Amino acid sequence: RNNDRINRELVGFKPVAISDVADVRMPTISEDYEYQSFIPWGTPIEPGITNEYAGDPNTRPTSAEAELQVGIGHDGMWFFPIDFDLQMQYGRRYRARSDEGMLCINHEFGRNSHVLGKSGPESLEDVRLSQHVHGVSVLRIKEHFDGWRVESSPNARRITVNTPVEFSGPAASSSLLQNPAGNMPLGTVNNCGSGPTPWGTYLTCEENFNGYFGSSTMSSDEFNAARTEEQARYGFDFDGFGYGWHFFDQRFDLTDPNYVNEQNRFGWIVEIDPFDGTKKPVKRTAMGRFKHEAVAIAESADGRIAAYMGDDQRFDYCYKYVSNEPWRDVIERGDSPLDDGKLFVARYNDDGTGEWLELSINNPLLAERFSDQAELLIYARVAADILGATPMDRPEWTTIGKNGEVYWTLTNNSQRQLANAANPQTPNSDGHIIRTTDAGDHMGNTFTWEIFLLAADTRGTEGVFTDPDLAWSDASGRLFIGTDGGQPDGLQDQLTVIDTNKERPEAKRLLVGVANDEVTGFTATPDRRTAFVNLQHPGDGDPSRTNFPAAPDGVTIPRDSTLVLRRKNGAVIGS
Ligand code: FEO
Ligand code: CA
Ligand code: CA
Ligand code: CA
């Protein structure tokens, strides 16, 4: 237990200094730590089932091969110890395995230039390859004497945008989720952050789903003239982010009359059971449809849960979902605590108080706009607009601190002109972190809040970082922050650690990534002596910037990868 404080400081490692970062083709880690690069894009999800780019590391897979490999765009993830069922049975005093488990990992996105080696798809096969590198991987992983490896498991699998899924909760049978084509619900996409549930499942969050849709028949002007208020609010346009799926796969064509509601099937939180590969992923509609960044669940003393969620867009909102019943009761009878509950959106008052505004059809203001709770949940952003939620500076991850407080990363907002107390900078180039404390043990309708840290205040210090994104708090009060957005002072995106027990937050840099990457996704083993963090889109796929995880050679295509982190003296991560 005392290993937690191997030094006098809770966060006692020697930080990476600005001057330590010399060659950004490889990561720089604190001299007290070591890393193993792990499961790069293209790793077989089970040993021996497909070639890991045998021979030529620059050979691209077929779409069929990609479906059996770890995808690209590594983002949110979670380690579930292989004996999670015993931990459930015996509670926290049971010491779960820290050397073997199921790893669920999101594959948020991969640009065509990186995945296909060209700007757009030229065939359905190209589209399928792009689709199959997106999604989620479920892997069995185990520590050996020489490091971590992927092992065989009947539950190892890839979930892509073409995998059968089901809808659950109040909107599940809404006509707005049915197409004239009658196609079954398939898949998940742009899986950004994530969070575990107390009952041992994985929640993956669909963020920029709008970017995969487009119109094969309309010009920009024609599409903008025809698009609905809801399509505009969710950011659909005629060519999306340039993936071009809609030219070969009608599901993603916004103007194909047979698939008019396919667009509503994305933007959800999706539950995956890492221990049962036969179960379909389930889209939990009670948690609302928006650009879900990530989710963090807190348990109240009465056994109910609160899920804290950000909607990552400039001027979008912070949300909370609360289950109506204690989760153990609901799970025991075979239902889901994520299907029956209330959804709220946050209003931050300038005096440090806040209110959770319920998104309910029982509110006359919302009943005037929506026909039922299902439609309200499908267009949750529009409902939140009506209630006067506070527009934020891009809400990214949430994490529950040591004392039940919630940290919200606000990554930046280049377009903010009008400040409010919770978003005080105009423009907000560097981002900030807000700390909220809920009334009523996470079950209340009010909260208090404070600015925990303005990233701009770290400028000119050794701990400088900007664009906070990933957030994970351990049980001792260490807050891990990953950045996304290019860093000052010649740094690259980084992982930094803050002792939240201290009055003044001080960031200590544990890791600096490689050129043009993003440091995101974090999970640790139950003993906290091993952690996993992702380097996403190294070099933006350009081999002249980095070849990571390969050593610098100028030609090998860089691959999104996980880093396994260990403190050299075996103490807990962050110490
Ligand atoms: Fe997928 Fe908002 O980062
Ligand atoms: Ca993010
Ligand atoms: Ca960000
Ligand atoms: Ca990002």
Give a written overview of the molecule.
With 575 residues, this protein is mostly beta strands. It contains ten helices and 30 strands. It has helices spanning 63-66, 84-90, 112-115, 124-133, 220-226, 229-233, 327-332, 364-367, 373-378, 380-387; strands at 28-29, 33-38, 74-81, 100-107, 135-144, 147-151, 157-159, 166-168, 191-196, 202-206, 269-272, 282-284, 292-299, 305-311, 314-316, 318-323, 341-348, 353-358, 392-393, 395-400, 406-410, 432-438, 446-454, 468-473, 478-483, 494-499, 507-512, 518-524, 530-536, 561-567. Strand 24 and strand 25 (478-483) form a beta hairpin. The longest helix has 10 residues, at 124-133. The chain is globular. It binds MU-OXO-diiron and calcium ion (3 copies).
